[in-house]
Structures are given as structure tokens and as C-alpha cells.
Specification:
280 residues; MetI-like fold; 72% helix; disordered N terminus
């Protein structure tokens, strides 16, 4: 009987491991293929028969791409918009989510549902109205328009997410801090926010990545080359009769780096924030 259980456990364990490797490969393969394409020469990309691995590794593509397009300017624009939009979302969503979590008011459930329902509206479906409104305020071709719009489209999710985290934190912890002499703001900053840190990290990641990858609004509003974010800027490698895949994918690999750095920097807070602030 024991051997049967051991055998069953082993089969289940092996199946789980194989399934995990398959899922990992499924998600990693596009990035691997993109990287391999970025180090091929232009002639090799269109050669017949095609090869999966490059015959000659063209590492110079990662140097030449900076000369073929103003990648540094594109990255600067993306960083300005993404960081500013993320900060704006946190500034607005934190007090809004805290109020929703701690105070009961009429139609609270309907309000949360309405907030979440705004996520159903795609920027593509609203692009004409967005363009006319931005033009009305004379904000075309400006960072401010991109920052406000990216923050607006990600604000609802952050409020809904953070309100759930704040609701899961016992109010008695804050009451104990108030008894010890903390003000409401001090209790929020020293006790509640550290406990809700995983939620803050999730909101930061979601907003930053969404703003970093946003394409449609930036393509419609921004016309100056120096203000184009990286998703719009790299489209210059897509021509009418030819596509410079080696430079397109090289620029894309470069564009991934800031997001990877963000994940590395804040990954430790996902675990540390689970217990921080809960012990006096």
C-alpha cells in the first residue's frame, strides 16, 4: 500500500514538473525567438531555407540600432510617461481606496462595480473622443496628455485592487496605533501601508507596465520624434516594402530591460511586505 502511494506521488510530482516546464517554455519561447532574430543579419533572416539559430551572431545589431533610431530618446519618453503616470495613480488611488475600505456609505458596492466596469472601455474604442478632448485643451504632442490618459485608464484597477487589500487588514491594528498616539495619517503611513505593500507593488507593476506598453494613444497624440515612447518609436523599422526585423527585435529586447529591472528592484517587497508593520 505504501509503495502504491509512493508511486502515485511520484507520478503526480513528475507530471507537475513536466507541466511547469511546458508552461514556462510556452511563455519563454517568444522571447527566445525574438532574441535569436535580433542577432541575425538581414540577409540571413530572409534566406531560404531558414535557420533557427543564427549562422553568424550579429551582436553589432545592438550597437547599430542606437544609430538607426533615437532609442535613447524613446526610452526617456517612456520613462517620463510611465513613472509619472504610476506616481499619479498612487497619489489618487491610495486615499480613494482607503476611504472605500474603511467607510461604509450608500451604494458602495455599486460604486466599486462601476469603478471596475470602466476597465471594459478600450482606448482604441474611445480614441476619437480622446483626440478631440486633448485637442480642446491644447495638449496634443505633450507628455502631460499621455501621463493623464495613462493614469486615467489604470486608476480604476488600482482603486479596486488596493481597496481589497485595505479591507483585508483588521481595523483593530489601526485602532491600536491611534491609542498609542498616532494620528489617522500616521497610522496609515506606519501601519496600514507596510502591511498593504504587496498590493502597492502590484498596483505599481500593473500601472507601469501598462503605461510602458501603451501604443494606440501615443501613436495618435504624439507627433514629435523626440517625444515618441518606445512602442511607437520602434515602428520606424517597419517599412512599406521591407521590415528590419533584426533592429526591430533588438530595440524590443532593449525596451524590456527597464521592466525587468523594476521587477528585480521590488520583488523582495512582495514577501517582506506580508509581515512588515504588523508587529509593534
Amino acid at each position: 500500500m505504501s509503495s502504491i502511494k509512493t508511486k502515485g506521488f511520484s507520478i503526480k510530482k513528475v507530471s507537475t514538473i513536466l507541466g511547469a516546464y511546458f508552461i514556462a517554455w510556452f511563455f519563454l519561447y517568444p522571447y527566445i525567438n525574438m532574441f535569436l532574430t535580433s542577432v541575425k543579419s538581414h540577409d540571413e533572416l530572409f534566406a531560404t531555407p531558414t535557420t533557427h539559430f543564427p549562422q553568424v551572431w550579429q551582436w553589432s545589431n545592438y550597437i547599430d540600432v542606437w544609430e538607426k533610431a533615437p532609442i535613447a530618446g524613446y526610452l526617456k519618453s517612456s520613462l517620463i510617461v510611465s513613472i509619472s503616470a504610476t506616481v499619479l495613480v498612487l497619489i489618487v488611488s491610495l486615499p480613494a481606496a482607503y476611504f472605500i475600505a474603511r467607510y461604509r456609505f450608500k451604494m458602495r458596492g455599486a460604486f466599486l462595480l462601476l469603478v471596475l466596469a470602466t476597465q471594459m472601455f478600450s482606448p482604441t474604442a474611445l480614441i476619437i473622443g480622446i483626440f478631440r478632448e486633448v485637442d480642446f485643451f491644447n495638449l496634443l504632442d505633450s507628455y502631460l496628455a499621455l501621463i493623464i490618459l495613462n493614469a486615467g485608464f489604470n486608476l480604476a484597477f488600482s482603486i479596486w485592487l488596493l481597496s481589497g487589500f485595505f479591507s483585508s487588514i483588521p481595523v483593530e491594528i489601526e485602532e491600536a496605533a491611534l491609542i498609542d498616539g498616532c494620528s489617522r495619517i500616521q497610522a496609515l503611513r506606519r501601519v496600514t501601508l507596510p502591511i498593504a505593500l504587496p498590493g502597492l507593488v502590484t498596483a505599481v507593476i500593473f500601472t507601469f507596465v501598462a503605461a510602458w506598453n501603451e501604443f494606440t494613444i501615443a501613436l495618435t497624440i504624439i507627433s514629435s520624434v523626440e517625444k515618441k515612447p518606445i512602442p511607437v518609436g520602434i515602428t520606424q523599422f517597419i517599412g512599406q516594402y521591407d521590415i528590419a526585423w533584426e533592429y526591430l527585435f533588438s530595440a524590443t529586447m532593449i525596451a524590456i530591460v527597464p521592466v525587468v529591472i523594476l521587477f528585480i528592484m521590488i520583488e523582495k517587497y512582495l514577501v517582506g511586505g506580508l509581515t512588515a508593520g504588523s508587529v509593534k
